[in-house]
Design a protein that fits this description.
The protein is an alpha/beta fold. It is about 35% helix and about 15% strand. A hairpin with a 2-residue loop joins strand 13 and strand 14.
């Protein structure tokens, strides 16, 4: 017997086992994971995604979309795809990016929020349509604080948020309440199916920006969570959803906010057995948000992901406070050109923008331009038309 060959085979099998969190994932979910890894290792392709691109938008609103009170900038109609449209199985035709470029983003971001009925109906329907178009789906969660029942943002919560994470972990006085929420998350995942009833794969990006101080699941705020508690919470959620509730259509993403170095990034890392995607959220917001810092962080994430056989990604980015209004070529100058600086930083699977969202009183939160916006031509000509960026119309089959 050739023991060298046997050893290689064993090592290979162990590598495959470690590489994906859920060994019992659906076939489509396993293939998606492999496709994402291939995309991440390919220095010629980066997918562009946007949060809720078919649910929220800033331009082109019309009936049956919800448009009342969403008018801005001298008659431009923002819009919302409502649950009534989802219940009627209406098409999700509108998309700010598509109205500029002719193509949807390659990735659709959804959010579980508080798992309310109307939100679930809408996210399931637009998610199914995106999946049937071949787009990739990522799901985040901005869930209210389990202990207080108030906002995910600690500054907006006047309740007692102290030791929130400790109190929802096993042994905590709100653990059973938290399990009920996890049961709802599992029900969402297990009922997220295509027209044939098969589970739709998704990247589950929970506890995002956990190194920041703004969420109840964060650090250095009045919740007084510890790094160890956050690691335990992440691990517990994965094990509960996967092992107890039979969720097998999730890939699991870890996505801190800005970090100083690799050690800082890994201080809340739950371990290779619990993570499929190593991501980072990076928003330009001031003098400290430099291109050099963005490049350094992307490079760090890529190197850490490749060392572990994982997928690397920029899981959220953009310019705060509608910076796109003042910097029309932002998506080329501050994102694409930075990623092109060296081969390593081109080895990410995707970059995702947040949702364009009009909230009334003439105000819209913008992360990408819309048709007629001053930045439209720059976005189309310099970002969309670049050979590196991948949109929905460029995608090959990610699931089969």
């Amino acid at each position: 017997m050739n023991f060298g060959v046997v050893l290689v085979v064993i090592v290979a099998l162990v590598t495959v086992t470690i590489a994906q969190v859920d060994q019992y994932a659906t076939q489509e979910t396993k293939i998606l994971y492999q496709r994402l890894k291939q995309m991440a290792r390919d220095e010629t392709k980066i997918m562009f995604g946007q949060q809720q691109f078919s649910v929220l938008g800033a331009e082109g609103g019309h009936s049956p979309y919800l448009t009342k009170t969403l008018v801005h900038d001298n008659g431009i109609h923002g819009w919302i795809f409502g649950d009534k449209q989802a219940r009627q199985h209406s098409p999700d035709d509108l998309c700010d990016v598509k109205r500029m470029t002719g193509s949807n983003p390659a990735m659709l971001g959804l959010d579980m929020h508080d798992l309310d009925y109307k939100g679930n109906i809408t996210s399931h329907w637009v998610g199914r349509l995106a999946y049937e178009r071949g787009e990739v789906i990522t799901v985040s969660m901005h869930h209210s604080n389990t202990v207080t029942g108030n906002s995910p943002w600690v500054k907006k919560d006047n309740g007692n948020v102290v030791k929130t994470v400790q109190r929802i972990l096993p042994g905590g006085d709100h653990h059973e309440n938290f399990k009920q929420i996890l049961d709802q998350m599992a029900a969402w995942a297990n009922s997220f199916t295509d027209s044939n009833g098969k589970p739709i794969p998704a990247i589950f990006r929970f506890l995002h920006e956990l190194n920041g101080g703004w969420f109840w699941w964060g650090l250095h705020n009045k919740a007084q969570n510890t790094e160890h508690e956050l690691i335990e919470l992440y691990r517990y959620m994965v094990k509960y959803l996967r092992d107890q509730k039979g969720v097998h259509n999730f890939l699991y993403a870890y996505s801190p906010d800005k970090f100083s170095d690799k050690t800082d990034y890994l201080k809340t890392y739950p371990g290779d057995d619990y993570v499929d995607v190593l991501g980072m959220d990076y928003y330009y917001s001031g003098s400290s948000s430099t291109k050099a810092n963005f490049q350094r962080m992307v490079k760090d994430v890529v190197e850490m992901a490749e060392e572990r056989g994982k997928v690397s990604a920029v899981t959220e980015t953009g310019y705060m406070n509608n910076g796109i209004d003042k910097i029309p070529n932002f998506w080329q100058d501050d994102i694409l050109d930075v990623l092109k600086t060296e081969p390593t930083t081109k080895r990410i699977a995707y970059v995702l923008a947040w949702a364009n969202h009009c909230s009334g009183n003439g105000h819209c939160q913008l992360w990408v331009p819309f048709k007629g916006h001053p930045a439209e031509n720059d976005f189309v000509n310099n970002f969309y038309n670049d050979s590196l960026t991948v949109f929905s119309s460029d995608l090959t089959d990610m699931y089969h």
